[in-house]
Design brief:
By secondary structure, the protein is mainly β. Helices cover 12% and strands 32% of the residues. The structure holds fe (ii) ion (FE2).
Length: 773
């Protein structure tokens, strides 16, 4: 780093040194290595959205690096920048931090700006702390210095609120004496000082800069505050460089047997934050061979999705291969800095079972889902599958931007980044299939209507056919989720030039079909549910057979054609799995709250019935196990078409963090059943679902009503967790586990799983040659 030592800097450093006790002979002198250290390099960073890997900006779309400052783009309230690598962990030790702030243009409704410290979630974990709504403010509001509850006017008014703020903490018995000083940023002269003692414990947590402590929720287009020269020192603060998040955020890869001239094909996508036009636009992929790093290629970043994708044909799948991606970050001046992200491309699992972690639905009240994320790492799966809802619209706060496409994309990306932030440790070492669902495109339900734009957008984003969001944003969703998937089967885009992603991956002797089971689906406005809500049937006596009208679509002709070909194609594998978003049956009787009875939900794959039956008729001969998610209610069931139990089995996995709750309690609402499984659990057996579809429900993971506050206990209560499927191609069996949220899946405790799990299914049970009783 280059620091220009000007007279001004010397004055400021001397002034700050006095605060730390430097140069004094007093006993409270701070060791030399605790001196203020600049923690950013915005002065030499190219103008751009993404402010650097040491920080998380709240929300990302409202900040820019601009002319050497970080500039908030709005005067809306509580826009913040958190350090992700430095937390205040030891409030009994001294600390000091300073920052220069100003208004780039006069602000009418000045909500103030400065530091916020002691920001922490119920976990006091650095990622979750970024979204906590507490903390102690220490800054400038109008002409007053504020420090917690203390407030004191400056000696004279500062033009554009341009000051150098310094916050110092010193322990005094069981409290910390905080001193906030404002100085003239040009000559270092003190212009104000305020002090306050606070309990030590209030200081623990993240440290942040805030533009507009107070302000409207609505995003106003007037620029807010800007900051530069953020410096930190003192032993109260722990520095953990490993927590840096970017510029390489994470990678995802797939490995698939093309069964053609390309042999096994590795596809890998690296993601960076949104960079500037003057930043380096290339990412490099290297692998380690004979202890040497060998470059396999460079890939250009897509300037909307900020993904760089590599495709390497004729991959040696027999050996595990260490890889790393390199991004060389350039600056306006000075040396570039290379960032690395590394992992391992696993060998193709042969001669042993393939172990798949299957996950869905991460509601950010449980962010960063450490019990699940850590358990996936611990289980060391051969492959990972995310079946959708990698985010919800409310993720990270600060609302949805739906239009126009540019800010909508940034609004999407920072929500998606929370997914990678949580699961990147597992994804670096295993092939990952990741498909988007409704919430990923900012819709509560998606009925894709072959890519059509939604009409009557004002009536909500969930009860009408078509896509609500600009096609460019939808395509960014597809790129960020699926660009590393094996080549798509039939990549022709749909309406509005929206991309498609169906196809297959052949790995470990198993073929995985990957579908977008809602991309062509008909909208609910094509039928009348009689409930006032287009997608829900509430009346128990409503005849749902009238909802099955000719011409209604579930998978669409192109995906049906793919599935027909896939079901007959047994090259290079002996077992099959179908991966899609949701279950082809209505396995929920109560929605939203414990007594929220619902006869039928058109958003499931149970509707339209004829198209549902046709899809199952196609996949029956594949003997595929269907693995899906979406429901926030784990289930194992077997589909029936002409008769009960004549078709494939489905495993709907538990949600990573279940939000909206669902229950399957058919016995309580008098739904008749036959042939209850031998285990005798309530609510199991052969049923007709709310649409009249035949379904044999073998097990469900009904949630409790949530009462607990701490996020991980709450997620556990709500039936969260993850699925695990072991596919044994020698024995031709699938073993299904559904682990609860807050358990150790390796300790053998029988209560780790939901009632009815684990279960082992033979391959041929997926075409009705039943053994399970
Ligand atoms: Fe969901």
């Amino acid at each position: 780093m280059i620091i220009k030592v000007t007279r001004r800097v010397v004055v400021i450093l001397l002034a700050l040194g006095a605060f730390l006790g430097l140069g004094r002979k007093r006993s409270q002198a701070v060791p030399a290595d605790d001196r203020l250290k600049r923690i950013e390099q915005w002065d030499r960073t190219h103008d751009r959205v993404w402010i650097g890997g040491e920080f998380w900006s709240n929300p990302m779309e409202d900040w820019r690096v601009q002319d050497g400052w970080v500039q908030c783009q709005t005067t809306a309230g509580n826009r913040s920048i958190h350090s992700v690598t430095r937390q205040l962990t030891d409030p009994g030790s001294p600390f000091v931090m300073s920052v220069e702030l100003s208004q780039s243009a006069p602000i009418d409704n000045d909500g103030g700006a400065g530091f916020r410290i002691g920001v922490r979630s119920d976990l006091n974990e650095y990622r979750s702390n970024c979204f906590a709504k507490n903390g102690l403010n220490a800054g400038l509001v109008g002409n007053d210095l504020i420090l917690g509850k203390a407030r004191k006017p400056l000696k004279d008014k500062r033009a554009n609120s341009h000051v150098l703020l310094t916050l110092q903490g010193k322990t005094q018995e069981n409290t910390c004496l905080l001193t906030l000083t404002a100085r003239d940023a040009t000559n270092g002269k003190e212009v104000g000082l305020v002090q306050q003692s606070v309990p030590l414990d209030t200081l623990k947590g993240n440290i942040a800069l805030v533009s507009h402590y107070q302000g409207t929720q609505r995003r106003v287009a007037t620029p807010g505050y800007r900051f530069r020269n953020w410096k930190i020192g003192g032993t109260a603060i722990t520095h953990r460089p490993k927590q840096t998040f970017g510029p390489l955020l994470w990678t995802m890869y797939s490995l698939s047997d093309s069964r053609g001239k390309d042999g096994f094909v590795l596809k890998l996508t690296a993601l960076t934050g949104p960079l500037g036009k003057d930043d380096n636009q290339e990412v490099e992929l290297q692998v380690k061979r004979l202890d040497e790093w060998v470059t396999l290629g460079k890939a250009k970043l897509d300037r909307e999705a900020w993904t760089a994708t590599f495709r390497i044909a004729n991959w040696n799948e027999k050996e595990a291969t260490p890889y790393r991606v390199i991004y060389e970050q350039s600056f306006k001046e000075g040396d570039p800095i290379a960032d690395h992200w590394h992992g391992s491309i696993r060998s193709n699992p042969m001669g042993r079972p393939l172990r798949l972690a299957a996950l869905t639905c991460q509601n950010d009240y449980a962010f960063p889902y450490e019990p699940v994320a850590n358990n996936v790492v611990k289980m060391d799966p051969d492959m990972i599958y995310f079946s959708g809802d990698q985010l919800y619209e409310g993720h990270g706060g600060f609302g949805i931007i739906r239009d126009p496409a540019d800010p909508a994309i940034l609004n999407y990306l920072r929500k998606f980044y929370q997914f990678g932030w949580s699961f990147r440790e597992s994804m670096r070492n295993a092939p990952t299939i990741c498909i988007p669902d409704d919430h990923d495109v900012f819709q509560g339900n998606i009925w894709g209507e072959a890519g059509a734009a939604m009409k009557d957008q004002d009536k909500g984003a969930s009860s009408k056919g078509g896509y609500r969001e600009p096609a460019r944003m939808v395509n960014v969703v597809h790129m960020t989720n699926c660009s590393h998937h094996p080549d798509f089967y039939d990549p022709q885009p749909v309406e509005q030039d929206i991309s498609v992603y169906f196809g297959d991956m052949v790995y470990g002797g198993v073929s995985f079909a990957i579908l977008g089971d809602r991309q062509w689906k008909s909208g609910p406005e094509r039928v009348e549910t009689g409930s006032g809500r287009a997608d829900h049937v509430r009346d128990k006596d409503f005849d749902t057979s009238v909802l099955d009208k000719p011409g209604l679509v579930l998978l669409g002709e192109r995906q049906e054609a793919f599935l027909k070909a896939w079901s007959k194609d047994w090259r290079g594998h002996t077992m099959k799995v179908l991966l899609s978003q949701t279950v082809f049956a209505g396995v929920a009787t109560h929605h939203g709250n414990f007594n929220g009875y619902l006869k039928a939900d058109l958003d499931s794959g149970a509707w339209p019935q004829t198209a549902r039956n046709r899809a199952i008729e196609i996949i029956r001969e594949s003997m595929a196990l269907h693995i899906n998610g979406d429901q926030h209610l784990a289930s194992i069931c077997q589909y029936g078409v002409a008769k009960q139990r004549d078709s494939n089995w489905s495993f709907c996995t538990p949600a990573i963090g279940a939000g909206y709750p669902r229950w399957w309690r058919p016995d309580e609402v008098g739904m008749p059943h036959q042939n209850r499984p031998q285990h005798g659990h309530a609510h199991t057996g052969e049923y007709l679902d709310g649409f009249g579809n035949k379904v044999y429900v073998y097990a469900t993971g009904n949630p409790e009503v949530a009462t607990k506050g701490p996020r991980y206990e709450r997620a556990h209560q709500k039936g969260s967790g993850f699925g695990f499927v072991t596919i044994d191609t020698e024995k031709r069996i699938y073993t299904l586990d559904a682990f609860r949220f807050n358990v150790d899946p390796t300790d053998g405790n029988l209560n780790n799983q939901f009632p009815g799990w684990p279960i082992t299914l033979g391959q041929a049970e997926n075409n009705g040659q039943n053994r399970v009783v």
